[in-house]
Write a structure and sequence with these properties.
Order of helices and strands: HHHHHHHHEEEEHHHHHHHHH
Helix content: over 70%
Structural class: mainly alpha
Number of helices: 17
Radius of gyration: 24 Å
Largest sheet: 2 strands, parallel
Number of domains: 2
Strand order of the largest sheet: 1-4
């Protein structure tokens, strides 16, 4: 038996910090290139084509989040690490079994998907728009196998302290699509629909390149890739036991997003469908205009930016402290820490909500509109309305991250999952109700309302189940936050009034700068404890 010796803790700490810096830099590069990719694609193809492309990419993207970056990776890493510390050969066999099983399952799903798509084209008289979606889905379906493989191998490589090649994988996808669009622009004679198919092939090529990028690190780490399945492996059973509840919870979140897109796609008025459809002998107007799917996708990317920068960072930082208190059953310390986290979420999310609402139109204008862009002022107006309603739920999105970790601290993953599954149905019903008066913006409002109700129920369950006091001091913090936010809005409006007409990008920068200064300044005058805590960190 070969036992892996524990590394020197000081050396490990230094290695962790340098790796964290590396990952941060590469992730920032990936985020920037992801924005550039979206801008390039939306400007060249326009929302009409990108609607179909977004729906065609739903299945590969869903499986990437569920298997590649979600439940499988989270379940695999601790079990693989534990096995590696005991016996390297057992760890190698476990890695081979997991990868073989993953590839086998995804290959079967891909073949079934391709078969269903082929039969659908033969059995049904499909509109040109639906046919375009099915073709794009068929083209990009194999990417599901490639990206899940890349993400799972990345998890294994991280255990062996190889961080660069897994972190660089998203950069490869973004660059591949950006290069593809620039090449396609030189050959416009093919037409946008045919070119969207070629863009789909660039996604698959990117998946192959992402796999190849991992290869040198896999050889250095000595991770074998020969096919093997040992169903009796206790590590494999442990991984699936950990994975299933997380898979259900993650599926709930992703299904809500997919429902938004699919409802928008099905109920969109197009040239082929006309403006009305027949239902039970009645003529009903389609509630959603063309381009809504793309605007939903783009608005999600924009509202998730403050969530990624602040919400997930805060939840990640507080999680070890909560877990420590929960393991020692020190409920007073847990309550105090969680209450402080909730007040911090209020302090950060409230101005983020208002700020995003203020900058939404000039932000979308400056990023996606242009002289030769197919993303027009009409699309900007639609995306701006959608982003407004998504922004209303920012505080709930932040709190979801925090409260879920509260349950995980007590090793309770079932309660958040049960609540999330119930709210799939609630979200779907709200969507179908709100799209008629609000159009695509109703889907965003449904998401915000669902997230808010879900957070309130989770918070009540957490407090009741573990006898916790989590809202102490919240009313005082909320009053100070509201005063600071009102002062921020009034100050921004005064500055914009005196500045007059300016370009959208300058307006965004000015609003952000003035908002940060005023909100921080007023909070300092009010002696906000949350501001003091942030400044100390």
């Amino acid at each position: 038996m070969s036992v892996i010796k524990r590394a020197d803790p000081i050396a490990s700490g230094k290695h962790f910090l340098s790796s964290a810096r590396l990952i941060s830099v590469v992730t920032l590069l990936s985020r920037i290139l992801g924005l550039v990719r979206d801008v390039v694609c939306f400007r060249y193809f326009g929302p009409k084509i990108m609607d179909c492309f977004t729906i065609g990419f739903v299945i590969p993207n869903l499986f990437r989040r569920l298997f590649g970056e979600g439940a499988l990776s989270v379940a695999l890493i601790p079990v693989y690490t534990e096995t590696l510390q005991e016996d390297r050969q057992k760890a190698d066999r476990l890695a081979r079994s997991v990868m073989t099983l993953l590839l086998g399952v995804l290959a079967v799903i891909t073949l079934l998907g391709l078969g269903l798509i082929y039969l659908s084209t033969l059995a049904f008289d499909l509109s040109a728009r639906t046919e375009q979606v099915l073709i794009l889905t068929a083209i990009m379906l194999p990417y599901m196998i490639l990206i899940c493989t890349v993400a799972t191998l990345g998890g294994l490589l991280n255990v062996h302290r190889f961080f660069f090649s897994p972190a660089i994988a998203p950069v490869v996808l973004n660059l591949s699509m950006i290069v593809a669009v620039f090449i396609l622009q030189r050959h416009p004679e093919a037409g946008l629909v045919q070119q969207s198919y070629q863009l789909g092939f660039s996604v698959v090529i990117a998946g192959v390149l992402q796999c190849l990028v991992q290869w040198p690190s896999l050889k250095k780490a000595g991770i074998p890739l020969k096919p093997r399945i040992d169903s009796s492996d206790p590590g494999l059973r442990k991984i699936f036991k950990l994975m299933l509840p997380m898979l259900v919870g993650l599926s709930a979140m992703q299904i809500n997003t997919c429902f938004d897109w699919l409802i928008a796609f099905v109920l969109t008025a197009t040239e082929q469908t006309g403006s009305h459809f027949e239902l039970w002998g009645r003529s009903i107007a389609y509630p959603i205009e063309e381009g809504a799917v793309s605007c939903l996708y783009m608005s999600q990317r924009l509202y998730q930016f403050p969530l990624g920068v602040f919400g997930i960072a805060l939840a990640t930082a507080i999680f070890p402290h909560l877990s420590d208190y929960a393991s020692r059953h020190e409920l007073s310390g847990f309550s105090k820490t969680m209450a402080q986290g909730i007040r911090m979420v209020v302090f950060i999310s409230f101005p983020a909500l208002i700020g995003l609402i203020m900058v939404r139109t000039p932000l979308i204008q400056s990023v996606f509109e242009g002289r030769e862009s197919r993303f027009t002022a009409v699309h900007t107006q639609l995306a701006s309305e959608i982003l407004f309603y998504y922004a209303l739920g920012i505080g709930a999105y932040f709190l979801q991250q925090l409260i879920a970790r509260g349950f995980y601290s007590f090793k309770d993953s079932t309660t958040p999952v049960k609540v999330a599954v119930w709210f799939i149905g609630i979200n779907f019903i709200l969507n179908l109700i709100l799209i008629w008066p609000l159009g695509a913006a109703g889907l965003a409002l449904g998401t915000a309302i669902t997230a808010t109700l879900q957070v309130l129920i989770l918070l009540k369950c957490l407090m009741k189940k573990y006898q916790l006091k989590l809202i102490s001091g919240l009313s005082g913090a909320l009053i100070k936050t509201i005063i600071s936010s009102v002062g921020m809005v009034v100050g921004c409006q005064i500055v914009l009034f005196f500045v007059g007409q300016i370009s959208p990008i300058i307006e965004v920068m000015l609003i952000v700068l003035v908002s940060v200064i005023l909100y921080s300044g007023i909070s300092w005058v009010l002696k906000s404890s949350e501001l003091s805590a942030l400044l100390k960190r």
